[in-house]
Model the fold of this input.
Amino acid sequence: MATSAGDKAEQAGDSASLEVFARGGLIAYGVVHLLIGWLALQIAWGTSASKSADPSGALRTVADHPFGQVLLWLVAVGLVALALWQASEAIWGYHNRDGAKRVRKQVTSTAKAVIYAALGFSAASVALSSGSSSSQSQQETTSGVLAWPAGHVIVVVTGLIIIGVGVAGVSKGVKKSFSEEIDTSSMPRAARKGVARLGQVGYIAKGVALVLVGGLLSYATLTFDPQEAPGLDGALQTILAQPFGRFLLTAVALGFLAFGLFAMLQSRYRRM
Done:
């Protein structure tokens, strides 16, 4: 009976309908990054300060447009489906991998499932007009965790994990290891090179931003000032405050735009 239930659950994880929704989720994931990149460009060149260049700011940009609520619910459904697909991969996938490589893939899929689910929840919250900015939510969460026993250790470790994820993203971009996840054999050679370049630029830029987020979070915790623990928007503002910050932030923004386009292309060419 247990085996039968497990087989049915695995079949559900591999179902065609879930794949369709998950591919739609990749489009939604790409749109969120395109909007973050666009908002970051506006911040870099001083054309807008009304929205945060973080996921919640991107989602509020969607909400401000006609049919925005409907689009947000579509984004939420797609991202949740993407989370379910990654969860099924973590539980039942990678049977052809051995040892540490299989465990690494499962951990990565689990982390992605959590990220996609959180973004889906954020989209639903904004659709219901109950979402707060990612930076504000992070500060509230950080303050709460710091009150726990060993709370500072937990937050610093979390910051180090975020740094690790960022470094892994940069490495993935430099090595172009993301090419294992997509099948572009049907593309002309020039198009394949263009997709690879988008992936490289996108992963590296996003990785750099995550390293900065994790570093700022850990630093704020060690200096006992949780209100100085910014999210992605705060990290981008920190880049802007540096010498030549406008140009550095522009480069990061273009990287997010590249990652968004790459994610949308994955909806067509991702191996599932």
Summary: The chain has a mean pLDDT of 79. The radius of gyration is 19 Å. The chain is about 75% helix and 0% strand.
